[in-house]
Amino acid sequence: MRISFERTGGFAGISKTATIDTVTLPADEAKTLPTLVETADFFNLPTEIPALPNQSDRFVYTVTVEENDRKHTVTVSESAVPANLQPLVEWLKTK
Question: At what angle do helices 86-93 and 27-39 cross, to 10 degrees?
Fold first, then answer.
């Protein structure tokens, strides 16, 4: 499994990107990441989850998951991250 993560926006406009591949992760993290993707029901999320009204200076997260023959990208505002996606986003923010 390979995940690309990008955080853009925010007050200072500083972006952050990371690419994570379970092949190169330590064993415990390589097991955790697919579980986070499954818990998020990631491949069934819409491609865009817009911000709530009046939410300026928030981060926007773009997450792309590639697994076997599947690839899906979700772009979501920080203020609109669904509860099931939150653990994956939090994990990715530490990378």
Answer: 140
One DSSP character per residue, 38-90 reads HHTTGGGS-SEEPPPTT-TT-EEEEEEEEETTEEEEEEEEGGG--TTTHHHHH
Work out whether strand 48-49 and strand 70-77 pair parallel, antiparallel, or are unpaired. Answer: parallel
| Rg from Cα positions in the chain | 13
**pTM for the complete prediction?**
0.89
Q: For the segment 44-70, what is each residue's pLDDT rounded down to a tens digit?
A: 999 999 877 666 678 899 999 999 999
Q: Give the residue carrying structure tokens 């990208």.
A: 73
